[in-house]
Design brief:
single chain; alpha/beta; 5-stranded mixed β-sheet
């Protein structure tokens, strides 16, 4: 018979994947054994944990509650192992990091080879989305966020800052002209985020106080798609320096209206759940990121 910890690990795998077969592949088990184990667990608890149909598995309210508490139990066991292993200089376990796809792709990914050499037994699991995930509900150990923090119950630590820059490709500017003042943007195709976000507020230091760009023909819920559209000459975009620093240096994008741009940089903040002590493995990730970004971040080095 599987131990309760093994039951919990199977349950969490099904919960996170939404599929018996996906969980079975991840755990090197058969879907039928996964289904039987979940059924035994439900019988023992006297509660239904999942709604099932031929296509998907969805957690019930009891399932969500069991997940939140059970995940902490599994993480506590992992932290206990890390604490013991840490005495010999080894850090083991998994760290779940939530951040923007663009920051992970352009800033964190290049650092992973060095991180893996330093901490070969640590696993990093990235959760990438343009909106902030609930840390406790999603089992996130560390979140890196851009902009003002809305939830005061979270523990936060400043990582770096990054300005946001208005830019377009040379091809777009050759066809449509270079805007000289913010009001000139009314004659241009402005690329924006598809979801409600403060990133759609294009602040300028002008008496008229133009905050928002005029409408454009394209939008996306990922900054990387907006970047690709701008690279291909579709329109003008406003993105973070940590995202477009390489394009600005290569000249594939040209900065615009720099004399009018608000020069206040946007903070990048590391956030942890307030109710969770910072484990050794998470502390190691935090220290590594501070080492790489805390003094002069990469997008501010070798600027033109």
């Amino acid at each position: 018979m599987p131990s309760r910890l093994e039951e919990m690990e199977v349950f969490i795998s099904v919960y996170e994947s939404g599929s018996f077969s996906t969980a079975a592949r991840a755990l090197n088990k058969t879907p039928s054994s996964i289904s039987k184990l979940i059924q035994r667990l439900e019988d023992r608890l006297g509660a239904q944990l999942f709604y099932r149909n031929s296509r998907s598995v969805r957690p019930t309210e009891d399932g969500r509650t069991f997940f939140l508490h059970g995940q902490r139990a599994v993480e506590a066991m992992a932290d206990a192992e890390t604490a013991v292993a840490g005495k010999s200089g080894r850090l083991v376990g998994r760290v779940r990091i939530a951040t923007m796809l663009t920051f992970a792709k352009y800033q964190i990914a290049p650092l992973i080879p060095e991180f893996s050499r330093r901490f070969p037994d640590l696993e990093i699991e990235f959760h990438l989305a343009p909106v902030h995930a609930d840390l406790l509900e999603n089992g996130i150990d560390l979140s890196i966020r851009s902009g003002p923090l809305e939830d005061s119950s979270l523990v936060s630590k400043h990582l770096a800052s990054s300005r946001w820059t208005l830019c377009a490709s040379p091809e777009y500017l050759a066809r449509h002209g270079v805007p000289k003042r913010p009001e000139d943007l009314k004659g241009h195709n402005c690329l924006k985020f598809a979801m409600p976000t403060h990133w759609n507020n294009w602040h300028f230091n002008v008496p008229a106080g133009l905050d928002a760009p005029p409408g454009g023909s394209m939008s996306a819920d990922q900054g990387d798609m907006l970047l690709e559209l701008a690279r291909h000459g579709v329109g003008i975009v406003r993105l973070a320096q940590f995202h477009i620093h390489g394009d600005l240096q290569r000249g594939t994008l040209v900065p615009l209206l720099e004399d009018f741009e608000s020069m206040t940089p946007e903070p990048l903040t590391m956030v942890y759940p307030a109710r969770r002590n910072l484990s050794q493995k998470v502390a190691a990730v935090v220290a590594f990121l501070e080492e790489k970004f805390g003094h002069v971040p990469p997008w501010e080095r070798n600027t033109r």
